[in-house]
Design goal:
This protein is an alpha/beta fold and 446 residues long. Helices cover 29% and strands 21% of the residues. Strand 1 and strand 2 form a beta hairpin. Helix 3 crosses helix 5 and helix 9 packs across helix 10.
C-alpha cells in the first residue's frame, strides 16, 4: 500500500492517491484541475486509476474528477447530498470500497458543507488513516460560512457550525489515536483560519493541539468558529457550481484562450490584469491596469478582485509567465474569462515613487488606505486613522476614499498594496496623487 500526497502550494491544496500493489489500482481523493501528476504517478506505479472520491464540491479550486473519468474510466464517488450532475456513485455513511486488501469507508461529516464526507482507510483489519477533506485540518477545522448561497443544499453558518461540532466529536475524534489525518488543505487556504504548516497528523496529536477538538460547549465552539473567519473570495460560489457539474477538460479549455501578439486595445471597461513586478509596472503600464503580480497567491487574488464571468485581459512579462498564469487562472475556472492574453513591455502610464521621507515626518498630510483584511487592520493597526478597505472590496468601494489629500495605500508586505494602489489610481488618478507604500510598510509596523 502507498498513500501519495500531492500539493498545490498556490492554493494550499492537498490531494491523494491510494495505491494497492495487490491489484495495481489507484483511487484518488480531491484531485486538482490538472490531471497530469495523477497520470504520471499511476504510470510510475504501473497502475490503473479506478476511482475518484470527492469529499465535497470544493469552493477554492476546480477539481478534475470528470476529466479523470473521461481519461481513465474511473468511477466518481461523492455524497448523494451533493446533487452532482456528472456520472457518479453515491458514497455516504455505511458505504465502502475495496481496493485489494484496502477498505475505504465513508463518513458523513457535515459542517464545512452539508454534503461533506470523510474517508477512513482500513488496512489489515485496522483503521490506518482518515482523509478529512475540509472538515478537520491540522490545527483547525473547516469554515462553515461558504454554503449559505451556493451548492445543491444551502445552509446557514450557524447550522453548519453546530453540525461541525458533532462531526468532529462523534465521527472523527472517536477514531483510534494512531489514525493518520490527511486534510485537503494546509496553511494559507481561505477554507480555514489558523491551519498548521504540517501536512498530516494523527487523531491523538490533534486531540491535544487542535483548538476545535478541545472540550467545550456547543455554544462556545460555534462562537469561536464563526469569529474572525477570512473573507470569502468572489469565485468561491462559482467553483462550487462548476464542481457539482464537472469542469471541462483542461487542455481543450486552455486552447480556447486567445493569445495575441502586441498589447490589447482595451474595449470599454474590460479589466486589465498586469502581472509584472511592481517596480516594472510603476515605470509604465496601460491605462486602468491592475498590478496583480505573479506570485504564490495570484489565483486567489484574481478570483477575489475579478467577479465570475467578468472578462479581463491578462498581461505578463514573457511567454513562459503568460502560460503559467493562464494555467493558474484555470485552477479556479477563470480561463474562460480571459478576453485576450499577451506579453507586455509596459505602457505610457506611470506611478510616482512614494515620497517616503515626507511621509515619515508628516503622515497626517496623507489619506492612508489599509487594504488588509478587516481583522488584520483591527488586531494590528499600523497607522492611526487609516481607512480600512480590504483589497477584495476595493474596486466596489474606491469612491469612499476622500480626495482632499494624496492617498497612500498599504498592506502588510507590499503584494496587496501594489494591486490596491493600481486600483485606486485607475479610479481616482485625475483627482489626487496615489502612492504605494510597498514593503516600506515594515518599518512602520515593527
Amino acid at each position: 500500500m502507498d498513500i501519495h500526497q500531492f500539493e498545490d502550494k498556490g492554493l494550499a491544496h492537498y490531494s491523494y492517491a491510494i495505491y494497492s500493489e495487490i491489484v495495481k489500482e489507484i483511487i484518488l481523493i480531491d484531485p486538482s484541475r490538472d490531471i497530469t501528476p495523477y497520470l504520471e504517478y499511476a504510470n510510475s506505479m504501473n497502475a490503473t486509476i479506478v476511482g475518484v472520491i470527492e469529499t465535497h464540491p470544493h469552493a477554492d479550486f476546480i477539481s478534475s474528477h470528470l476529466e479523470l473519468h473521461h481519461a481513465t474510466g474511473a468511477r466518481i464517488y461523492c455524497s448523494a447530498l451533493t446533487g452532482a450532475s456528472y456520472p457518479h456513485t453515491a458514497f455516504d455513511e455505511g458505504a465502502s470500497l475495496r481496493l485489494g486488501n484496502i477498505i475505504l469507508k465513508a463518513l458523513n461529516t457535515p459542517g464545512h458543507s452539508p454534503d461533506s464526507i470523510s474517508i477512513v482507510l482500513t488496512h489489515g483489519g485496522e483503521d490506518r488513516a482518515v482523509f478529512t477533506g475540509d472538515t478537520l485540518f491540522i490545527g483547525d477545522c473547516g469554515r462553515p460560512d461558504l454554503r449559505e448561497n451556493a451548492g445543491n443544499i444551502t445552509a446557514d453558518r450557524n447550522t453548519l457550525a453546530k453540525q461541525m461540532y458533532y462531526s468532529l466529536r462523534n465521527k472523527l475524534l472517536v477514531l483510534g489515536d494512531d489514525v493518520l489525518v490527511y486534510p485537503a488543505h494546509g496553511a494559507g487556504t481561505l477554507c480555514g483560519k489558523s491551519l498548521s504548516d504540517a501536512d498530516s497528523s494523527t487523531i491523538a496529536a490533534e486531540a491535544v493541539s487542535n483548538w476545535s477538538l478541545q472540550p467545550s460547549t456547543e455554544a462556545d465552539f460555534v462562537a469561536e468558529l464563526l469569529s474572525q473567519q477570512p473573507f470569502i473570495p468572489k469565485y468561491f460560489p462559482y467553483d462550487v457550481a462548476i464542481n457539482r457539474e464537472g469542469a471541462p477538460d483542461l487542455q481543450p479549455a486552455l486552447e480556447k484562450v486567445p493569445i495575441i501578439s502586441g498589447e490589447p486595445v482595451p474595449e470599454g471597461n474590460v479589466v486589465i490584469i498586469d502581472s509584472r513586478p511592481a517596480a516594472a509596472f510603476k515605470q509604465g503600464h496601460l491605462p486602468n491596469a491592475i498590478n496583480l503580480q505573479n506570485g504564490g497567491k495570484f489565483e486567489t487574488w484574481l478570483g477575489s478582485i475579478i467577479a465570475p464571468g467578468e472578462p479581463y485581459y491578462l498581461l505578463a512579462a514573457n511567454d513562459q509567465e503568460l502560460w503559467q498564469l493562464i494555467r493558474k487562472a484555470a485552477k479556479i475556472g477563470y480561463e474562460t474569462n480571459i478576453k485576450a492574453a499577451a506579453v507586455t513591455n509596459g505602457g505610457a502610464v506611470t506611478m510616482e515613487s512614494m515620497p517616503l521621507a515626507n511621509f515619515r515626518e508628516h503622515p497626517e498630510q496623507y489619506t492612508i488606505v489599509d487594504v488588509r483584511m478587516a481583522s488584520e487592520s483591527k488586531e494590528e493597526p499600523i497607522f492611526e486613522n487609516a481607512l480600512s478597505i480590504p483589497l477584495d472590496q476595493l474596486r466596489e468601494r474606491v469612491t469612499e476614499i476622500p480626495t482632499g489629500k494624496p492617498v497612500v495605500v498599504h498592506c502588510a508586505g507590499g503584494y496587496r498594496s501594489a494591486a490596491g494602489s493600481s486600483i485606486v489610481a485607475a479610479a481616482l488618478k485625475d483627482k489626487v496623487k496615489i502612492y504605494d507604500l510597498g514593503d516600506a510598510v515594515k518599518e512602520f509596523a515593527f
